[in-house]
Amino acid sequence: MALIRTAARTLLGALFVTSGVQALRNPDRFVTRAKPVTDRMSTALEAASLPTDTETLVKANGAIQVAGGALLLTGIATRPAAAALAGSLVPSTVAAHPFWAESDPERRADQQVQFAKNMGLLGGLLFATMDRGGKPSLAWRTKHAAKAAKREAKLAGVTTALAGASTAQKAGNAVRRAGGAVSWTAGNAAGRATGAAKRAGDAASHAGRSVKRSAKTARREARIAVRAARLGRNLPF
């Protein structure tokens, strides 16, 4: 495919280089045929601040063809070169092959053939302006970039949703663990408080029993002392 593309560019470029060199070397050969066209275009040329002299325009057209053809031959900036050559081919074709102005049938037919050939060249140049050497067009790249961006946005949304769900689950687990820890702490504290109360109750009960034993012992000793005193009064000595 690359070989065919190179061959096509070479054929087109060589043709326009040859034609442009002829126009630069011998512009008078083309001035007579080009003058009716340049005269009709003089108003538009003046509005665009371009020269209206026919010989100057013929030379400028020839220079465009030489430069564009050389770019096609070398494969440099081929699309702009093809566009420039297509633009230069239209006025030169109208000036060189006005078959509609011919009254002689043979000359008219000959001019029609030449005009059709140039239109074929114009079609080839227009095709060359769209040739990207196998690279995708801007429209294709834009379309596929939009699709890729849409896929990435969708994937980002799914990823965000999954991350949110994971975060919510982690938060729930943390809350449950915190609740369990609080419950365990509260239960442990309640158990310690119950144990302390029980120990305090036991201590109080023990103290009460000790007081009862002491009181009982004191009463017993008091009774013994009373009996001893009575016994002492009853002794004869």
Order of helices and strands: HHHHHHH
Overall mean pLDDT stands at 82
Q: Quick one: biggest sheet?
A: none
Percent helix: over 70%
Q: Please state the overall shape, judged from the principal axes of the Cα atoms.
A: rod-shaped
State the end-to-end CA separation.
Answer: 158 Å
- Give the oligomeric state of the chains in this entry, treating copies of one chain as homo and distinct chains as hetero: single chain
Q: Which strand-content bin applies to the residues?
A: under 5%
Question: Unreliable runs, pLDDT <50, ≥5 residues?
Answer: none
Number of strands: 0
Structural class: mainly alpha
SSE blueprint and pairings:
Layout lengths: L1 H24 L2 H13 L1 H6 L6 H21 L3 H19 L8 H26 L7 H97 L3
Helix pairs in contact: 1-4, 2-4, 2-5, 4-5, 5-6
Keywords: Membrane, Signal, Transmembrane, Transmembrane helix
Protein name: DoxX family protein
Membrane topology: Multi-pass membrane protein
